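Feature request, filed as a ticket because there's no other form

It would be nice if the structure record came with a short human-readable summary line next to the tokens. Right now we just get the raw output. Example of a typical job, pasted below so the devs can see what we mean:
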Amino acid sequence: MGFRCFNWRLVIFFVLSMGFQGELAGAHGRRQLVQSLEAADDGVCTAVVSPQGYECREYEVKTQDGYILTMHRIPQGRGGGSAGKRQPVLLQHGVLSDGLTWLLNPPRQSLPFVLADNGFDVWITHGRGTRWSRRHESLKTSDTAYWAWSWDELASYDLPATVGFVFRKTGQKLHYVGHSMVGDFTYFNAKHVILPSTLNYFVCMFCYLLPPLQLQQLTDVG
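Raw output as currently delivered:
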């Protein structure tokens, strides 16, 4: 028997994760982790996830406009867990950060690990232009054209590419958990790019953490 789309366990763990903010790992430890990643050029799986005892897989996803995004997957908990399909959860980071921000705390305080330990198939995205998603099929990061994108492209290309990839890999609808800017471009996508009926075909539920829906006094730096 398959999973029901709406799952109260996810809601509970998401709410509990808010409480973990009071038990954050020390800033010095997080800074050391980021510095070690930059110095050794290790990937997220090698440097962060696997040392905690979790299985980790890395995927490349190409958007319709040629950007190559990295996604990381934690398919099961530290103890392995029961066999069978696990309901997928996709975690999208906020603006001026990348997917590593979900993993900077100890396992019991990091939402991806908490979800994996409680029966979910966890996927972490890294948006275009961030450390692990800086490739393009024809452009280099030194090209001005590489950076010629904004919120519209995140909504029109990155969101459908990552959501569609997880759906095709798992064969299941997914839960989408997003922080900050995700509220903007998923709302834009649902309203202007993907018809609600189509979006519902891929996603069970959206969970937003501090989503802004209106931005003011921002100008184009180009």
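Something like this underneath would help us a lot:
The beta strands are 57-62, 67-74, 87-92, 120-126, 135-136, 174-179, 203-209.
The two ends are 52 Å apart (CA to CA).
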